[in-house]
């Protein structure tokens, strides 16, 4: 078992008192999670190498007793983890899962919504804000369907519950695509709760209920709409102009994800703004994308030139002071604000509403229509399978298929 427990102060978030939170870090299976101790110290009071409070500390009146308590707490936590390993409960888990297992409440105190809240907090802690948002949407869906006054327990969710949820969703005019997202997310929650010993396996309702597949929702913009966006006469420096620049930059950089675009820094630039090298936040997969003239112009527009300071963010999405564990949330909030502006832009141009996420689908569909093979689009998006890429690709219209048919039989 390769697991490490280590105390440290969180220097990313400084309190007004000049102190930092003291946390215990769990490192396991190339992942980590943090347990707050409830104590705060200055940098001068903490000895990181020895993981103790210095005897000169003015915060702790008895540093020897406090350091002994820290060592005892760490030893007790390690004993619990060893016990979990002996019971075979650590296989395939992450550090955050271990924290949840060790500090889990008694099973009977969990409701479906409280367990979702716990999972959302863990995801936010890991910086996986997008997945946390999906859980938030599921929670709101369950509250709307079941109500908030009566507690919803895992035992309440059976085949009949799922079928009624499905009927209510479809009767409201919603599609099967969004229903599938809710159901798959709820299934994942059930599996997680079973894994943590919170729910008995015989209560699992998805053995009887089948999540039906549906045609994926096509998010890509048509080429004519994209031309309207590019050619729109917008006031330079306005919110609409900046929103357009962010959207086009995402397309020009092979459908780069908003999170990855926000985290790009000058250090990601190769040569004289020739390429951008980065790792996908979601998967860790490395990318190297050529900077075409349009991207260079956008960077000049957004930053007032290309005179960047060392370690500056490439796109003005994050600010220099935005440093710390709340960065994913700030990126998410700015994404929502951007999408609101893009909706305004769509209304002004009289085209269908679109979001920054559609840039990824638009790049894929444009590439397909220009004759780029699916394997090339798959590599460009960083997908593991062609099936995954197909969900990004729009269907060909009859006019395109007619032309293809003419090409096949024209010379016969």
TrEMBL record:
<dbReference type="Pfam" id="PF00589">
    <property type="entry name" value="Phage_integrase"/>
</dbReference>
<keyword id="KW-0238">DNA-binding</keyword>
<protein>
    <submittedName>
        <fullName>Site-specific integrase</fullName>
    </submittedName>
</protein>
<dbReference type="InterPro" id="IPR013762">
    <property type="entry name" value="Integrase-like_cat_sf"/>
</dbReference>
<keyword id="KW-0233">DNA recombination</keyword>
<comment type="similarity">
    <text>Belongs to the 'phage' integrase family.</text>
</comment>
<feature type="domain" description="Tyr recombinase">
    <location>
        <begin position="216"/>
        <end position="405"/>
    </location>
</feature>
<dbReference type="InterPro" id="IPR035386">
    <property type="entry name" value="Arm-DNA-bind_5"/>
</dbReference>
<dbReference type="InterPro" id="IPR025269">
    <property type="entry name" value="SAM-like_dom"/>
</dbReference>
<dbReference type="InterPro" id="IPR002104">
    <property type="entry name" value="Integrase_catalytic"/>
</dbReference>
<dbReference type="InterPro" id="IPR011010">
    <property type="entry name" value="DNA_brk_join_enz"/>
</dbReference>
<dbReference type="InterPro" id="IPR010998">
    <property type="entry name" value="Integrase_recombinase_N"/>
</dbReference>
<dbReference type="Pfam" id="PF17293">
    <property type="entry name" value="Arm-DNA-bind_5"/>
</dbReference>
<dbReference type="InterPro" id="IPR050090">
    <property type="entry name" value="Tyrosine_recombinase_XerCD"/>
</dbReference>
<dbReference type="Pfam" id="PF13102">
    <property type="entry name" value="Phage_int_SAM_5"/>
</dbReference>
